[in-house]
Task: structure prediction
Amino acid sequence: MSDLLTYINDYNGEYVELEGKYKSGFEESALYDKSNFDDNDTKRALWVNFDDFIIRCPLISSRTKLDLFSREKSYRNMINKTVILHGRIDINQKGHLSMYRASLKDITLVVIKR
Result:
């Protein structure tokens, strides 16, 4: 993820699979490079945009068989955990107040590591 953040413009529009730490909270949905997780440096993170794609393509848990964003909100299980996300880089969307390097959108895979 560190190399991707350094050369983010080269990845615009590309689908990538990244491992990092996920944070979510008030006006925050971000994937951080694991080495910078505790620094809260948003310039070393990607905004994670689940909104558009999951409506068209629900993410179903292989364990519970429930939609990750259903009423049970099982996505909360990945907050502050190491996750693998597969999605598309968009350098034009930089998240809340444009604080992030880019966005990861059109998410097609979420793996919560133990």
